Amino acid sequence: MMKLYRLEDLTPGQVLNRDLRAEQDVEAVVDAIIADVRARGDAALRDYARKFDGAELDALEVSRQELDEALDAADPYFLETLRMAAANIEAFHRRQLHDNFVMTEQDGVILGQKYTPVERAGVYVPGGTAAYPSTVLMDVIPARVAGVPEIVMTTPAGRDGKVNPAILAAAAVAGVTRIFKTGGAQAVAALAYGTESVPAVDKIVGPGNVYVATAKRKVYGKVGIDMIAGPSEILVLADGGCNPAWVAADLLSQAEHDRLASPVLVTDSEALAKAVQAEVEAQLARLPREAIARASVEDNGKIILCQSLDKAIDVCNIIAPEHLEVCVEDPFAVLGRIKNAGSIFLGRNVPEALGDYFAGPNHTLPTSGTARFSSPLGVDDFIKRSSFIYYTREALGKVKDRIAGFAEAEGLHAHARSVTIRYEEGGGTK
């Protein structure tokens, strides 16, 4: 049963109850996999596909024929839904694009900033207990909007050596350039360092299990990464006017992801808290993924009862959840007080699944409290900004003594000399 606590009885650590550290054996396994992929390339990827996925792979790359077959076999209604969702996601992310700018206010001085997409992005899409075509859309479309020329996707194949057709259909809709049949830490290593078949990328994005997250952390520096994703989280902030069956269903929508997922209800209503507790039990019994959801609820779920809605909002900001549902009478009155959350769902008619699949904002979100300092995946993850500076000789001459003095104050005399030499007799004029 989902545990019910009163806020005043919890320590700060019990409110959070998180640990991002990988177990030592995970670290060792990931280190070995990365080293193996770097040493043996494609051969290592085929061996891991056989070992972990039960797949015998002749070719690692998904062929055009396989992609066309997946599109032809796709249910037309589902394909239409993918295209509608893709349009929503693209429209939202196009609003994130930046304009280059130039400043010319000072005589002889031109300053500016320009944005450039990365050359090649790697997108990791999980396999295993469930297929996630939604992740394909969410992670690929912002890269395409950013103008990334090449988008490389990795995802594990099934025992038949084929990638889930729903994932392939989503990849075709999203605009993936190339797809490779590899998953886990080995896929991250392949994207970071390259193999005979898989090209090395500049940045890796996408969620995964603890092995994937650990591998991303270890290759960071060789490549960029979006974030270190932890288990999925949902926090429902609810007042006494909520339907407990709806709240329970929303909590379970994340609990079914995996056993480590964290469903949390924060409320100022004891009656709602107890009603949701009962509803969660009743609905669990009807879920196809009951065993996974039940482990999540019993091990990581909690209901926190607060003395007021103000206190409940404070708890939300402390937890800084991945998904925050604001299920109160006037959600827009609360919005301004929410400081820490990956994605915010406003009102009683906005289940988290709306954001997962269709609305447009990204569902690759900061977890484990990192919403305190990080943001959802977006266009900015696939672009770099560069500043540029131009001064005429006359403009530099007006400030040369100040720059040289600044450099000398830091003890960096060669810095100072690089400015003053331009104005010394015999120092040149170009």
TrEMBL record:
Catalysed reaction equations from the record: L-histidinol + 2 NAD(+) + H2O = L-histidine + 2 NADH + 3 H(+)
Pfam families cross-referenced by the UniProt entry: Histidinol_dh
Top-rank taxon, per record: Bacteria
Family matches, as InterPro entries: Ald_DH/histidinol_DH, Histidinol_DH_CS, Histidinol_DH_monofunct, Hstdl_DH
Recorded GO CC terms: cytosol
Cofactor remark from the record: Binds 1 zinc ion per subunit.
Entry keyword set: Amino-acid biosynthesis, Histidine biosynthesis, Metal-binding, NAD, Oxidoreductase, Zinc
Cofactor or coenzyme needed: Zn(2+)
Biological pathway: Amino-acid biosynthesis; L-histidine biosynthesis; L-histidine from 5-phospho-alpha-D-ribose 1-diphosphate: step 9/9
Positions contributing to Zn(2+) binding: 254, 257, 356, 415
Active site per the UniProt annotation: 322-323
EC code: 1.1.1.23
Signal sequence bounds: none
Described purpose of this protein according to its UniProt entry: Catalyzes the sequential NAD-dependent oxidations of L-histidinol to L-histidinaldehyde and then to L-histidine.
Protein's name according to its UniProt entry: Histidinol dehydrogenase
Native organism: Candidatus Faecalibacterium faecigallinarum
Gene: hisD
